[in-house]
């Protein structure tokens, strides 16, 4: 009988509080390494916009800055991970966020002979996160992220990446909700740093500097982790 040879595509996790730069850096890694960014926040916002049952259940929870149930998020992630484009490797942005999610991910990957290459914790100061988040906006056409102070497009209101002019701000990017999101991060997600440290998969990076400098350091970590 012929044995099936499985190739294991890279799986990287970006950990960090709201505003740490997970989405910003994941997009750069997509371009640099041909991996697919998988953001559970984006998947949930798409479900809310589409009015699915999961989206209806998630909407108020997200607006309050709390975590959506593990069951909903794990189901959404499992479906997306099965898509053809994800077979080339993924960067998980915003997942896992609880120990239950981390254990579910381990089990899911084990089914296909995969494992996590690295979990990178983006280390930042909480105080700076409110400023980062309240100044954030995104191109509605391609998803490129911008900031009122730190990252502006070359031409005001026009996306550098796709030329679109439909800039959007998120409903949960206000000071009150950000405070709840930071509380949820410290209570439920920060313990995952120890979880991945125990598995020997944790890498940490100072994410308070310039975006491009952080991308360079992160790129080095990812290159070593997937080679
Ligand atoms: P999600 O969409 O995942 O939001 P988040 O984790 O709160 O993270 P953000 O997207 O706000 O920040 P980021 O780290 O990606 O920063 P960014 O790169 O944009 O989740 C939203 C909600 O969905 C949750 O609250 C929850 O309800 C639900 N949810 C999602 N996943 C879930 C899960 N697994 N389980 C349960 N519920 C879940 O950067 C922010 C800004 O700063 C940008 O403007 C950027 O340009 C700028 N910036 C980035 N880096 C720098 C830098 N180095 N210097 C200066 N500015 C910078």
Describe the protein in words.
The protein has a five-stranded parallel beta sheet, with helices on both faces. Strands 6-5-7 form a three-stranded antiparallel beta sheet. It has nine helices and eight strands. The protein is of the alpha/beta class and 227 residues long. Helix 4 (70-81) runs parallel beside helix 5 (99-111) and helix 6 crosses helix 7. The radius of gyration is 17 Å and the shape is globular. The protein binds BIS(adenosine)-5'-pentaphosphate (AP5). The site of BIS(adenosine)-5'-pentaphosphate has 36 residues, from helix 1, helix 2, helix 3, helix 6 and strand 6.
* C-alpha geometry: globular
- In round numbers, the mean pLDDT is 93
Strand count: 8
What is the SS-derived class? alpha/beta
**Largest β sheet strand count, sense and barrel closure:** 5 strands, parallel
Low-pLDDT stretches = 1-6
Radius of gyration, taken over Cα atoms and rounded to an integer in Å: 17 Å
H/E series, N to C? EHEHHHEHEHEEEHHEH
- Fraction of helical residues: 40-55%
Percent of residues in beta strands: 5-15%
Number of helices: 9
Cα-to-Cα separation, first versus last residue: 31 Å
Molecules bound to protein: BIS(adenosine)-5'-pentaphosphate
Major beta sheet, strand line-up: 2-3-1-4-8
Concise structural overview:
The chain is of the alpha/beta class and 227 residues long. It has helices at 22-33, 40-50, 53-64, 70-81, 99-111, 126-134, 175-189, 191-198, 211-226, and strands spanning 11-15, 36-39, 90-93, 118-123, 136-139, 145-147, 167-168, 202-206.
């Amino acid at each position: 009988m012929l044995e099936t040879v499985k190739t294991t595509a890279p799986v990287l996790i970006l950990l960090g509080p709201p505003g740490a730069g997970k989405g910003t850096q994941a997009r750069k890694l997509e371009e640099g390494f041909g991996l697919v960014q998988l953001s559970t926040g984006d998947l949930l916002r798409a479900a809310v916009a589409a009015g699915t049952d999961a989206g209806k259940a998630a909407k108020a929870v997200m607006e309050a800055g709390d975590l959506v149930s593990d069951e909903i998020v794990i189901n959404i992630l499992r479906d997306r991970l099965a898509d053809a484009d994800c077979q080339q490797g993924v960067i998980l942005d915003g997942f896992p966020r609880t120990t239950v999610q981390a254990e579910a991910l381990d089990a899911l990957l084990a089914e296909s002979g995969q494992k996590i290459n690295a979990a990178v914790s983006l280390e930042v100061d909480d105080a700076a996160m409110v400023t980062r988040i309240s100044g954030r906006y995104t191109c509605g056409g391609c998803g490129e992220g911008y900031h009122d102070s730190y990252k502006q497009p070359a031409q005001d209101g026009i996306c550098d990446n796709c030329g679109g002019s439909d800039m959007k701000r998120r409903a949960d990017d206000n000071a009150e909700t950000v405070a709840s999101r930071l509380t949820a991060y410290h209570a439920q997600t920060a313990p995952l740093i120890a979880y991945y440290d125990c598995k020997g998969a944790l890498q940490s990076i100072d994410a308070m500097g310039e975006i491009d400098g952080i991308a360079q350091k992160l790129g080095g970590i990812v290159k070593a982790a997937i080679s």
